[in-house]
Design goal:
There is one protein chain. Among the domains are: 134 residues, no CATH class; 96 residues, no CATH class. The chain starts with 12 loop residues before the first helix and ends with a helix. With 564 residues, the chain is of the alpha+beta class. Helix 3 packs parallel to helix 5 and helix 11 packs across helix 12. It has 21 helices and 13 strands. Strand 6 and strand 7 form a beta hairpin. It is globular and about 75 Å long.
Length: 564
């Protein structure tokens, strides 16, 4: 059990003096007029506290109550709060930014009290933020970048489950980061503080795995720079530092083990005429070109794509085995492993909690609920409901609001988002479970309108943790075809390419990736659907579809053989 907040001795003169000093400093920068500015921004959540003058007395966390059983912990918290408050007053923050940071401190303390979070963890979180603000010089970060990192840590600590991954392929480490900030904020803040002040991080594993970030990954990138304006959609700078470091823990571990020199790098986004690249890539330090792992938008995903790897990262950061809170279905198909480096050849022992049935899933949720272990990281497939419909609605909204009128005219074929086929694996945070109603609540690291508005039935959620079947995709494609025809917007070449993507992907899964776990009935049904779809096409587009499927399978198999 974590220790709850304790009330300080009221007669402790020195403690009260420190408290009053901090409160007075806070009041200078936080008044109703300043704090109302924040309401005009796109806030992460309506749950974030409003300000009414004195962030230390709303709510009055330490002004009354029983005698403390451990005065030192509360003294540390009050002293660290005062230290951070003084440092904030010395930064280049304007009054609005200062009020925002102090408001996040207030929300953080309120959450900590309600959650029963150890008061010492709050004090240590403040200490890590102070360490960043006390640093000098322009290496490894500039003063502006350090201040931004400090502000962002407090924003995540205030509402960790609403912290988004932004436009990056990092749902994996975003959920891990958000769980840490929920339960061990000082540990997560400590990683960021180490990187912000030294440019490196030393893990808590036996090998003391050390990550040194490259200069590009240390820079604040465009999306992160704009994060304060869109905190519910954009990844912030502190998360950038955390996530790049977390993923590189796996690369450094395997570099040492296999004699490789590969690193995960975050550069600026690249906007082309047809696609926005995330700026993520894996590079080989001995070469001047990206390794075959490729860009995050182009092909193979970086390390950290499996639940087992996430458990490894979490253990390296915390020094603890917390695998009971990392959940997946035992029969969930493994993510594509065509990158097949040396680290992929050895069999891996399952880590995390694997469930073979819905009843086992409910049992695990019940145990996590009783032991207070939420939030839990869960592997799902976004090609399944409820995730796909939410994603589809978001895409419709994006198209309708696009400034290009031609873009707004896209038909239903465009809404069959086959881009999720190869990267349908996703991670979310289950934040609660109600055994009476058999419902779970969860947060999606995609953020914004990707978060659910209602709890989800546990049986539906368990189904969403499995791989989406080919027949489900083909049903969607057929429905989109019918809608497009009815609206006079049908484009057979778009339909043909979507069909080719679906069948090439699932043919590969059936023959290579799922290792005998294929449902023969579903495969036969999907094959019949595919043939019917080809018969409805013109001969030219049908031939093109068959050609695209053959070429994609050949390319994938050639790539695989090169790495075997």
């Amino acid at each position: 059990m974590t220790e709850h907040y304790e009330q300080p001795l009221q007669a402790h003169v020195r403690e009260k003096s420190v408290y009053e000093t901090a409160r007075d400093n806070a009041s200078l920068a936080c008044n109703a007029e300043v704090c109302s500015l924040r309401g005009s921004q796109q806030s992460k959540s309506i749950a974030r506290s409003e300000f009414k003058g004195d962030f230390l007395t709303i709510p009055p966390l330490y002004e009354s109550g029983a005698l403390s059983s451990d005065q030192q912990k509360n003294t540390n918290l009050i002293a660290e709060r005062a230290r951070l408050d003084t440092l904030v007053g010395k930064t280049t923050l304007d009054s609005r930014e200062s009020a925002q940071l102090k408001g996040d401190m207030q929300t953080f303390e309120k959450r900590a009290k309600e959650q029963g979070l150890n008061a010492e963890a709050v004090a240590k979180t403040y200490s890590q933020v102070s360490r960043i603000l006390e640093a000098k010089g322009n290496q490894p970060l500039s003063e502006k970048e350090r201040v931004r990192a400090a502000m962002d840590i407090m924003a995540i600590a205030a509402e960790p489950t609403l912290n988004p991954q932004g436009g990056h392929n990092t749902c994996n480490v975003t959920t891990l980061e958000n769980r840490l900030f929920s339960r061990q904020p000082d540990v997560a803040a400590g990683l960021i503080a180490d990187v912000a002040t030294t440019g490196q991080y030393v893990a808590k594993d036996k090998e003391r795995t050390t990550v040194r970030l490259d200069p590009e990954s240390l820079k604040i990138q465009p999306e992160e720079l704009d994060a304060p304006n869109h905190p519910d959609q954009n990844r912030n700078y502190a998360s950038q530092l955390f996530q790049v470091t977390a993923i590189n823990l796996l690369y450094e571990r395997d570099n040492k083990k296999f004699g490789t020199d590969q690193h995960y790098v975050q550069g600026p986004e690249i906007q082309t005429a047809t696609v926005t690249l995330t700026g993520e890539k894996v590079v080989d330090g001995s070469k001047e070109f990206p390794s075959p792992f490729g860009d995050g938008n182009g092909g193979h995903q970086q390390k950290g794509g499996s639940l087992q790897e996430l458990v490894d990262i979490n253990t390296m950061i915390t020094g603890q085995n917390q695998s009971q809170a990392f959940l997946e279905r035992k029969d969930m198909a493994d993510p594509r492993e065509l990158q097949a480096g040396k680290d992929m050849t050895a069999p891996r022992k399952p880590r995390g909690s694997q469930m073979s049935s819905e009843e086992e899933f409910k049992k695990q949720l019940d145990e996590l609920n009783k032991s207070g272990q939420f939030p839990a990281v869960v592997a799902v497939n976004i090609a399944n409901e409820p995730f796909y419909s939410i994603m589809e609605d978001s895409l419709k909204k994006e198209i309708s609001q696009h400034p290009d009128p031609d873009h707004q005219k896209q038909g239903p074929e465009t809404l069959v988002d086959t881009s999720t086929l190869r990267h349908d694996g996703h991670f979310v945070l289950i934040t609660g479970y109600n055994p009476k109603t058999q419902e779970v609540t969860y947060k999606n690291p995609n953020g914004g309108d990707q978060n659910p508005k209602e709890p989800v039935k546990v049986d539906d959620f368990y189904k969403a943790m499995a791989s989406a079947k080919a027949s489900v995709w083909l049903d969607r494609l057929e429905k989109a075809r019918d809608q497009a025809l009815a609206q006079g917007k049908f484009k057979e070449d778009v339909h043909a390419r979507n069909l080719a993507e679906i069948m090439s992907e699932y043919t590969l899964r059936w023959t290579v990736h799922e290792n005998g776990q294929v449902d023969p009935g579903n495969r036969e049904r999907a094959t019949r659907q595919y043939e019917r779809a080809l018969q409805r096409m013109s001969p030219a587009n049908a031939a093109m579809t068959r050609y695209l499927v053959r070429e994609e399978i050949k390319r994938a198999m050639d790539s695989r053989s090169q790495h075997d």
